[in-house]
Amino acid sequence: MTELAELMADLDLIENDATETALKGVRFFKVVTQSPRTPMVYEPGIYIVAQGHKVGYLGKESFVYNVDNYLVNLVSIPFECETFGSKEEPLLGIYIEIDVEQLYHMIDQIGFQRSNSDNSKKLNRAIGPAFLDKEMKDAVCRLVSCLKSKNDTQILGPSIVNEIIYRALNGDQAAVLYSLATPNSDFDKITKVLRFIERKYAEKIDVEQLAELASMSPSKFHKAFKDVTSETPLQYLKKLRLNKAKYLIAQQGTKAYVAAYRVGYESPSQFSREFKRYFGYGPAELHHEGATLV
Question: Distance between CA 55 and CA 61 in Å, rounded?
Fold first, then answer.
């Protein structure tokens, strides 16, 4: 058992779900089941695994995040995930939200030398793993320890979170973090489009509108969008809508046809067909199966 897993072992965590902490933007997660490859969407942030592991699939690529590799996710990206946990050895981890404004401020303090390097000018995937080095591991362990005390959480917690973000800026996903904070870079433009889609996914959206928002030609926008997400804009929108609908049905008990309309579908029958094709079962079955958020 890792040091981080030992620190989390005595916490009162909700099984197969996230457990909020007293520190805003920080949550624990615990999974006691092994789940096959399943479509999902992660919130933007850093995901650090203390025990167990997950395998993520984005397009034709795959990546592992485990006790040696944490995950950096900058926008809401639909991808597929395989989870390895059990009652005897549950998947344990911690989620840390990335405050973009704080990230901008931190990079401004550091300076833009790295953000002007060749690596940051390349279009990177918006989600990917990074090696959990000694400095990052130490910071995360101190964060978990301080979360056990109300006073420590209030006084020390925010500064340790900032340290973790700083460590990520020096890790394997540094280039994509710097790109996010580089105004008017292609990556910055695409992430702004993704955030627009996140807000407006239930409305009518066309590719020309998105290209205009990104200040790109339709052909350049299409390529840049796929470079970042591995999906075409319309594929991304469909998968995001289906994941949002799944949440409404599984977590809020919304009727399938109501969820369909809420996420932007005009035809409940088309919604049911695409839902089953994507998840492998119909929305009616989801009421009985439930769903996890991690």
Answer: 11
Task: Decide if 290 is inside a domain.
Answer: no
What is the tens place of the pLDDT at every residue in 269-289? 999 999 999 999 999 887 544
The closest of 254, 224, 250, 253 to 236, measured between CA atoms, is: 224
Q: Are residues 172 and 127 in the same domain?
A: yes
Task: Please check whether residues 150 and 221 belong to one and the same domain.
Answer: no
- The model carries a pTM of 0.89
Per-residue burial over 56-84, b = 16 or more CB atoms within 10 Å of its CB, e = otherwise? bbbeeeebebbbebbbbbbbbbbbbbbbb
pLDDT-derived band at 122, boundaries 50, 70, 90:
low
Q: Residue 239 sits in which domain range?
A: 235-279
CA distances from 12 to 25, 29, 138, 245, 259 (A): 18, 11, 22, 30, 33
Are 214 and 250 within one domain? no
Q: pLDDT tens, 18-63? A: 899 999 999 999 999 999 999 999 999 999 999 999 999 998 899 9
Order of strands across the sheet with 53-58? 35-41, 78-84, 53-58, 61-65
Number of domains observed in the structure of the chain: 3
120 and 140 fall within a common domain: yes
